[in-house]
Prior knowledge:
By secondary structure, the chain is mostly helical. The chain folds into 2 domains: about 5-75, Winged helix-like DNA-binding domain superfamily/Winged helix DNA-binding domain (Arc Repressor Mutant, subunit A); about 75-220, GntR ligand-binding domain-like (Four Helix Bundle (Hemerythrin (Met), subunit A), Up-down Bundle). Helix content is about 75%, strand content about 5%. It has a 3-stranded antiparallel β-sheet with strand order 1-3-2. It has a two-stranded parallel ribbon with strand order 4-5. α4 packs across α6.
Amino acid sequence: xxxxxxxxxxxxxxxxxxxxxxxxxxxxxxxxxxxxxxxxxxxxxxxxxxxxxxxxxxxxxxxxxxxxxxxxxxxxxxxxxxxxxxxxxxxxxxxxxxxxxxxxxxxxxxxxxxxxxxxxxxxxxxxxxxxxxxxxxxxxxxxxxxxxxxxxxxxxxxxxxxxxxxxxxxxxxxxxxxxxxxxxxxxxxxxxxxxxxxxxxxxxxxxxxxxxxxxxxxxxxxxxxxxx
Length: 228
């Protein structure tokens, strides 16, 4: 295989993974829904190898599960969600404390510009990108790759549920305000204030997520939610 062919194949794989991840995170593919390689090939006009590669990554991310010889979109697991937020409440305060000590003005300005742009020019695609991005970028300001990776994982595991509670303009405004406040505290070098702010934000998001999933149980069906 030539270098050009390899490059095109990698681009196809990355493009398919992005499209499939968005379909799951935005609930176009419903939690608990069975999916097959053939279905995804037809749905996304893709060949078998990129589909299998995308499924491998989505299983790793906890968005797809094996179901017999096929696959299914991972259901919402209420116990896992509680565990994820409990873990987040350990990791994120540590990350923002370090961020408040280490962050540069240029770095915080770049994050602020992105959250302002995302709020002013809202689209589902942009919000999902920013929803994954804000907390991970703040954690990255800690200069600790393990903290940033941990926030990447926990954010990915909650952003799909977060979307259920984010359809209203009021909900988006609240999130924008809270993110701005967290960033303000990091900029002010207020490590403890930033830690308290992310804990308060996390508690509110956790309750919103649980309420939204409970409200959507009927829409998703019995297979869409597991646990109490």
